[in-house]
Amino acid sequence: MGSAQSRRITPGANPTKRKNATKKNATKKNATKKARPRNPATQGTPVAPAKIIQGDCLDHLSRLAKHADRFDLVYVDPPFNTGFAHSARKKRGARAQGETAYDDSWGGLNNFLDMLRPRVTAMRTVMSDVGSLWLHLDHRAIHDTKIILDDVFGAAHFRGEIIWVPGNGSRRRSGPGVTHQTILIYSKTLEMIWNGDDPALREPFAATSLRTHFRKKDEDGRQYRDRTINGKTYRYYADEGRRLGSVWSDCPAMNANTPLSDETTGYPTQKPEALLERIILASSLVGSRVLDPMCGSGTTIAVAARLGRPAVGMDRSATACRIARKRIR
Ligand SMILES: C[S@@+](CC[C@H](N)C(=O)[O-])C[C@H]1O[C@@H](n2cnc3c(N)ncnc32)[C@H](O)[C@@H]1O
After folding, report:
1. Fewer Cβ close by (within 10 Å): the C or N end of the chain?
2. What pLDDT, on a 0 to 100 scale, did the predictor assign at position 274?
3. Residue 52 near residue 315 (C-beta atoms within 8 A)
4. Please, how many CA atoms are within 13 Å of residue 182, restricted to the half-sphere of its CB?
5. Which of 113, 317, 321 to mutate to test the pocket of ligand 1 (most atoms within 8 A of CB)?
6. How remote is the CA of residue 77 from the centroid of ligand 1, in Å?
7. Would you say 75 and 91 are in contact if contact means Cβ atoms under 8 Å apart?
8. CA–CA gap between residue 18 and residue 196 (Å, rounded)
9. Pick the residue with more confidence: 296 or 83?
10. Torsion 30-35-36-39 (CA) sign
């Protein structure tokens, strides 16, 4: 994916420690391990500005299209066409029976798609030439939406899809279980920012592979293997891990939805910060403008700002905007 060579990043050896580590653990590990270098192009330190605008994103996007500023990354997690209204929790720990956060009944799939088409078209207009759209849905509407996106973006601009395994799907007795959601990725042109070597897009090698293949050690004691492909030899280090595939099961939804978690806002269908962090690190740079036109509780906006990307969130739900504004403050 991604031919934007000039934008490609050479990562540091490994990611910095993620913020979830407890202070105690961090101190202990820091004492024994050297700090891992950050990737300065993808992991910025200063918090970037963020703003939340209430209203139908179609109206706001049409206004934004008149300005020159464009977005390098658009992530959108629309309603899923579930057929019912979603309620927020009144407070952390309460049951999700508070005010209606947003209605997700459209009177059928065709109406849902009629709502979506002009909005994704408007999203494309405000994207930069190296920008990408990540659109998140589930089995109810993802296949029909792909046909719309192929039409709006051109099938050649379909760059891949992520199968996200939230860890909480239904395992039905009466039919096949539904334990994943899908994120489609489209670019505006044939270029897109893709930080394929970023540590956020790596995972540890399987234990068997480490045992079988990584038998050698270099002068620093790092385990590696050399592979010769078409006459050229490549060296792979065990501690750098391998590139991630398209199935992501390590960003559990629970982090966003259980009352015990710090990031839970009580907004229904909130997505976990770890998922957005990976998407943002994959396909934007420090300083890239990030947009979430149906931002709900503001997960994308909060994470983008933290990673040094100026971010704009839109939502037509007053409840969403109140929660998202509080969150980015
Ligand atoms: C699945 S939720 C987004 C959840 C969000 N990703 C989060 O982490 O909290 C979908 C959101 O789309 C919003 N929405 C639906 N139609 C919209 C429209 N036309 N313009 C703006 N927001 C819209 C809903 O109000 C709802 O908050």
Report:
1. C
2. 96
3. yes
4. 14
5. 317
6. 7
7. no
8. 19
9. 296
10. positive
* pLDDT for residue 168: 84
Q: Is 197 in the pocket of ligand 1 (CB under 6 A)?
A: no
| pTM greater than the 0.70 cutoff | yes
Indicate the top mutation candidate among 295, 301, 326, 327 to test ligand 1's pocket, ranked by most ligand atoms within 8 A of CB. Answer: 295
Q: Which amino acid is at 254?
A: M
Whole-number Å distance, alpha carbon 152 to ligand 1 midpoint, is 21
Residue-range domains of the chain with CATH:
45-201+245-328 (3.40.50.150), 205-240 (no CATH)
In 3D space, the residue among 84, 78, 81, 142 whose CA is nearest the CA of residue 109 turns out to be 81
The two structure tokens encoding residue 319: 């409840």
Q: 197 CA to middle of ligand 1, Å? A: 31
Name the token pair of 292.
Answer: 């979430």
CA of 90 to the centre of ligand 1 (A): 18
Are the CB atoms for 122 and 57 separated by under 8 Å? yes
Longest dimension (CA), the chain: 66
* pLDDT tens per residue across span 114-143: 999 999 999 999 999 999 999 999 999 999
Whole-number Å distance, alpha carbon 34 to ligand 1 midpoint, is: 42
d(CA 16, CA 200): 10
Decide: helix, strand or coil at residue 215: coil
By most ligand atoms within 8 Å of CB, the mutation choice from 138, 294, 314, 326 for ligand 1 is 294
CB neighbour list of residue 115: distance below 8 Å, 6 or more residues apart: 106
CA distance 124 to 197: 26
The secondary structure of residue 167, as a DSSP letter, is S
